[in-house]
Amino acid sequence: MCCGGAAVTSPTTPTLTDDRGTLTVHDRAVSTIASAAAAAVDGTSSQASSGLAKLAGRTLPRVDVHNRGGLVRANVAVAAYWPQSIDKVAAAARDRVASDIAEMSGQTVEKVDVTVQALVAGDVAAEEDAAPELPGGLVPRATPAAASVGVLASLLLIAGGVVAIREVLIGAGAIGGARWSPPVVDWIDGLQAQSWMVPAGVGAALLGVILVLLAIKPRRRTHRALLLEGVFLRRNDLGDLLETAVGRVEGAVAGRATSSKRSAKITVTALPDADTKTVHRDVTDAVAREVAILTPVPNIKVKVAAAVQP
């Protein structure tokens, strides 16, 4: 029917095409997802990794994300409660971070590396309940280099005191015997310049310089520091730590472990039915996780030898 005025037309339904736009997930969003996932893992704690980090506001967990062609790589640093299994905490954090990134961002996770950068004493619910940090003065250190010199000087002073008391008693007639001080004083009073005095003076000066250097020489550290503030490991115990890590690897038998100040080496024997390359990889990973509690982390060398067939 036709009426006056504008014509009335029926609305049209919009047609959807295959091109519906693109979805872009920034690395910062992925980092937020990963950080929240790591913080939600049982055994992790929100802590600053050091005193300077607290001032700078850099707390743990901390995440660095790299996206290359849709493949995500994440480096996650966490703090764990002590005593917790670092292996289990790191593995749980790695699985949770990878799962949450894939589920929430829709991106493919290529690799997640987890580093335990700090240990917190006690399984506490709040950061303020954590054990207080021990002052740096309690770091285990060796006996001062000047200690032996101090002992020798003390013995000489004691001997000098005994001689002085003897001289006084002889002078008072309390005891008998010949006095030692007059001949010594007369000998010193009668000294004249001689050829041996120059080298003797040089030697005395050098001895004085050596004693001063020994007095100001810093004491060397005797223990390796752990990430947990105030907890240390004896240097000789690093070998036991490595052997413990190897003991958890299937198909490997720990051999001799040696260590120095900045590095360590362990020799492992692969069982006859085990692949040496696989054993080397698993041992390297296990050792790396075990020494992650040390600071600084020593350089570890792993040598795997095949078992000799009977």
UniProtKB/TrEMBL annotation:
Bilayer-crossing regions: 151-176, 196-216
Domain of life: Bacteria
Protein name listed in UniProt: Asp23/Gls24 family envelope stress response protein
InterPro entries in alphabetical order: Asp23, DUF6286
Origin species: Antrihabitans cavernicola
Region (Disordered): 1-20
Ligase listed as a keyword: no
Keyword annotations of the record: Membrane, Transmembrane, Transmembrane helix
Family per similarity comment: Belongs to the asp23 family.
All copies of domain DUF6286, residue ranges: 206-305
